[in-house]
Amino acid sequence: MKASIRDIATRAGTSVSTVSRALNNSGYVSPDVRVRVEEAVRDLNYTPSKDARMLRGGPSRVVGLMLPAVDVPFFGILAQAIEQALFQKGYQTLICCTSENLEHEARYVSMLLSQRVDGVIVASAFGDDAHFEAFGAADVPLVAIDRDLGRFADHVVTADHEAGGRLMVRHLTALGHRKIAAIGAPAHSQSIQVRLQSISSELGAQGLELSAMALGEEHTFPAAYAMARKIIENNQAVTAIIGMTDIAAIAAIHAVHDCGRAVPGDISVIGFDDLPEAAYVIPGLTTVAQPIREIGEQAAHVIEAAIAGRRQFDETAVKGVTRLPVQLVERQSTGAVRA
């Protein structure tokens, strides 16, 4: 039996009118009561009916955007591109940072539904999670970016991470590198895992394998620096390091220098993303560029179409997936292996 507002009030230990104010954001609700209401909504899997949404008014012209982080450059650029693209289409964007926390992610689902968003764009840190089913039950379209959400997403917009992994390996092996290591984070990221699988597959096709690998959960310069330095100190034969992201690769460049070695003379370093900083680190970072802003703009286009009920996307999206191409950007951080 479907839960009602009265059920939510009973579970949260408050009144129906207070629950209504919390769900509709139509008046003051104390922070602790709001938390209890959100928990009750999640526990009872409550979703407002389509009729109830219509009774509360027309479209909200608000799109929810859920990201695992906003202090990571990739997601900051992505958020800005999506917000600007939606603004041009007459939508406001409600940005939610989940801090790569599953409980936060589930709570934001309830909050976005209570805000009557017209659609949601999600970059989930955890992949296929059941709490996203609530959007479908409430007839709210969901577009996934950078990683798939399986049956819960109407559409996926992503870069071609698999092709990117192959590009990194082929570039390094063409320069003569055979002892290659890889570092990156967060380890649970779907895009990181796809890149790693592609790297391993391409190395295997050439009769090679990674000489060393370190994946962590903290996607920061200090964490990546520590991983890179440990690999360099423990694997003297390594001549190239693949950074699963530009953050990891830039940290690796610093680690190589601090170990008394040169980039690319002793160790070549390659990254993935092509963040603005990649061109200004010394030496300039060779990287696989993914079209971050284009991913955001395409996601905004797709969610607008889904909200309007249009399902006619371009030819690259006929199966519900828009996979944008990546390209190798050669700079000074990679070079031929020394004899």
The tally of structural domains comes to 3
Q: Could you say what the CATH topology of the largest domain is called?
A: Rossmann fold
Which structural category fits the helices and strands?
Answer: alpha/beta
What is the succession of H and E elements?
Answer: HHHHEHEHEHEEHEHEHEHEEHEE
Give, in spatial order, the strands making up the sheet with the most strands. Answer: 2-1-3-4-5-11
Main sheet overview: 6 strands, parallel
What proportion of the residues is helical, as a percent range? 40-55%
* CATH-level-2 architecture of the largest domain: 3-Layer(aba) Sandwich
Broad shape: elongated
Low-confidence stretches: 50-56, 310-319
Task: Describe what this molecule looks like in 3D.
Residues 3-57 form the HTH lacI-type domain. This is LacI family transcriptional regulator. It comes from Rhizobium aquaticum. Keywords: DNA-binding, Transcription, Transcription regulation. It holds the Pfam family Peripla_BP_3. Helix content is 42%, strand content 16%. It has 339 residues and is α/β, with parallel strands linked by helices. The protein has three domains: 1-46, 434 Repressor (Amino-terminal Domain), CATH 1.10.260; 56-159 and 294-324, 3-Layer(aba) Sandwich (Rossmann fold); 161-290, 3-Layer(aba) Sandwich (Rossmann fold). The strands form two sheets. The protein has a six-stranded parallel sheet with strand order 2-1-3-4-5-11, sandwiched between helices. A six-stranded mixed sheet has the order 7-6-8-9-10-12, with helices on both faces. α7 (133-137) links the parallel β3 and β4 (142-145). α10 (221-234) packs across α11 (246-258). The longest helix has 16 residues, at 73-88. The protein is elongated, with a radius of gyration of 23 Å. The termini are far apart. Residues 50-56 and 310-319 have low confidence and may be disordered.
